[in-house]
TrEMBL record:
Residues 9-76 form the HTH merR-type domain. PROSITE patterns: HTH_MERR_2 (PS50937). It comes from Trichocoleus desertorum GB2-A4. This is Heavy metal-responsive transcriptional regulator. The keyword RNA-binding does not apply.
Amino acid sequence: MIAQEAGKQIGSVAKASGVPIKTIRYYEELGLLKTIGRTEGGYRLFDPGIFTRLSFIKRAQKLGLSLAEIKEFLDVHDQGELPCDHVKVKLEDKVAEIDQQIQQLQVLKLELEGLLSGWETRPANPETTICPIIQGY
Protein backbone atom coordinates (compact mmCIF):
# COMPACT_ATOMS: atom_id res chain seq x y z
CA MET A 1 0.00 0.00 0.00
CA ILE A 2 1.75 3.19 -1.19
CA ALA A 3 -0.24 5.59 1.02
CA GLN A 4 0.75 3.65 4.13
CA GLU A 5 4.44 3.89 3.26
CA ALA A 6 4.20 7.63 2.66
CA GLY A 7 1.82 8.34 5.53
CA LYS A 8 2.51 8.72 9.21
CA GLN A 9 0.24 6.95 11.68
CA ILE A 10 -1.35 9.09 14.36
CA GLY A 11 0.69 7.45 17.13
CA SER A 12 4.01 8.21 15.48
CA VAL A 13 2.84 11.77 14.72
CA ALA A 14 1.89 12.26 18.38
CA LYS A 15 5.18 10.86 19.62
CA ALA A 16 7.34 12.87 17.21
CA SER A 17 5.44 16.13 17.64
CA GLY A 18 4.63 15.98 21.34
CA VAL A 19 0.98 16.69 20.51
CA PRO A 20 -1.40 14.21 22.18
CA ILE A 21 -3.40 11.83 19.97
CA LYS A 22 -6.64 13.28 21.37
CA THR A 23 -5.57 16.78 20.29
CA ILE A 24 -4.61 15.57 16.81
CA ARG A 25 -8.05 13.96 16.46
CA TYR A 26 -9.69 17.19 17.64
CA TYR A 27 -7.72 19.25 15.13
CA GLU A 28 -8.79 16.83 12.40
CA GLU A 29 -12.41 17.15 13.52
CA LEU A 30 -12.12 20.96 13.26
CA GLY A 31 -10.59 20.69 9.78
CA LEU A 32 -7.14 21.93 10.80
CA LEU A 33 -5.57 18.61 9.82
CA LYS A 34 -6.47 16.21 7.04
CA THR A 35 -5.71 12.56 6.74
CA ILE A 36 -4.45 11.00 3.53
CA GLY A 37 -6.25 7.76 4.30
CA ARG A 38 -6.29 4.95 6.80
CA THR A 39 -4.38 1.75 7.31
CA GLU A 40 -6.10 -1.59 6.88
CA GLY A 41 -6.46 -1.57 10.66
CA GLY A 42 -8.29 1.78 10.53
CA TYR A 43 -5.48 4.00 11.84
CA ARG A 44 -5.37 7.51 10.45
CA LEU A 45 -2.53 8.28 8.07
CA PHE A 46 -1.13 11.78 7.72
CA ASP A 47 1.10 13.36 5.13
CA PRO A 48 4.65 13.95 6.42
CA GLY A 49 3.86 17.70 6.14
CA ILE A 50 1.69 17.34 9.23
CA PHE A 51 4.63 18.35 11.42
CA THR A 52 4.85 21.73 9.71
CA ARG A 53 1.11 22.19 10.18
CA LEU A 54 1.18 21.19 13.84
CA SER A 55 4.10 23.53 14.46
CA PHE A 56 2.21 26.38 12.77
CA ILE A 57 -0.93 25.66 14.83
CA LYS A 58 0.97 25.58 18.13
CA ARG A 59 2.93 28.77 17.38
CA ALA A 60 -0.21 30.61 16.28
CA GLN A 61 -1.98 29.55 19.48
CA LYS A 62 0.92 30.86 21.57
CA LEU A 63 0.49 34.19 19.79
CA GLY A 64 -3.12 34.30 21.00
CA LEU A 65 -4.87 33.22 17.82
CA SER A 66 -7.96 31.06 18.10
CA LEU A 67 -8.34 27.72 16.38
CA ALA A 68 -11.04 29.29 14.17
CA GLU A 69 -8.61 32.00 13.06
CA ILE A 70 -5.89 29.41 12.48
CA LYS A 71 -8.31 27.37 10.38
CA GLU A 72 -8.94 30.42 8.18
CA PHE A 73 -5.20 30.74 7.55
CA LEU A 74 -4.82 27.04 6.79
CA ASP A 75 -7.80 27.16 4.41
CA VAL A 76 -6.11 29.97 2.47
CA HIS A 77 -2.87 27.96 2.46
CA ASP A 78 -4.71 24.85 1.26
CA GLN A 79 -6.01 26.86 -1.70
CA GLY A 80 -2.40 27.42 -2.77
CA GLU A 81 -1.93 30.93 -1.37
CA LEU A 82 0.19 32.28 1.45
CA PRO A 83 -2.07 33.54 4.25
CA CYS A 84 0.46 36.17 5.42
CA ASP A 85 -1.80 39.16 4.68
CA HIS A 86 -4.60 37.56 6.71
CA VAL A 87 -2.17 36.74 9.51
CA LYS A 88 -0.85 40.31 9.55
CA VAL A 89 -4.35 41.76 9.99
CA LYS A 90 -5.15 39.34 12.83
CA LEU A 91 -1.85 40.07 14.58
CA GLU A 92 -2.48 43.81 14.30
CA ASP A 93 -5.91 43.21 15.89
CA LYS A 94 -4.21 41.25 18.69
CA VAL A 95 -1.79 44.12 19.33
CA ALA A 96 -4.74 46.54 19.58
CA GLU A 97 -6.52 44.16 22.00
CA ILE A 98 -3.38 43.90 24.14
CA ASP A 99 -3.04 47.70 24.21
CA GLN A 100 -6.64 47.94 25.43
CA GLN A 101 -6.05 45.26 28.08
CA ILE A 102 -2.92 47.08 29.28
CA GLN A 103 -4.94 50.31 29.66
CA GLN A 104 -7.66 48.47 31.59
CA LEU A 105 -5.05 46.84 33.85
CA GLN A 106 -3.40 50.21 34.51
CA VAL A 107 -6.77 51.66 35.57
CA LEU A 108 -7.37 48.65 37.82
CA LYS A 109 -3.89 48.98 39.32
CA LEU A 110 -4.51 52.65 40.15
CA GLU A 111 -7.83 51.76 41.75
CA LEU A 112 -6.23 49.02 43.85
CA GLU A 113 -3.38 51.30 44.90
CA GLY A 114 -5.95 53.92 45.91
CA LEU A 115 -7.82 51.39 48.02
CA LEU A 116 -4.62 50.21 49.66
CA SER A 117 -3.47 53.77 50.43
CA GLY A 118 -6.64 54.28 52.48
CA TRP A 119 -6.22 51.01 54.36
CA GLU A 120 -8.23 50.93 57.56
CA THR A 121 -8.24 47.79 59.65
CA ARG A 122 -11.13 48.69 61.97
CA PRO A 123 -14.46 49.61 60.38
CA ALA A 124 -16.74 52.09 62.14
CA ASN A 125 -19.63 49.60 62.11
CA PRO A 126 -18.04 46.11 62.13
CA GLU A 127 -21.40 44.35 62.39
CA THR A 128 -22.60 45.75 59.04
CA THR A 129 -19.27 45.75 57.22
CA ILE A 130 -17.40 42.88 55.65
CA CYS A 131 -14.35 44.87 54.51
CA PRO A 132 -14.46 48.67 54.25
CA ILE A 133 -11.68 48.76 51.67
CA ILE A 134 -13.75 46.90 49.08
CA GLN A 135 -17.13 48.23 50.19
CA GLY A 136 -15.96 51.85 50.15
CA TYR A 137 -17.16 52.85 53.63
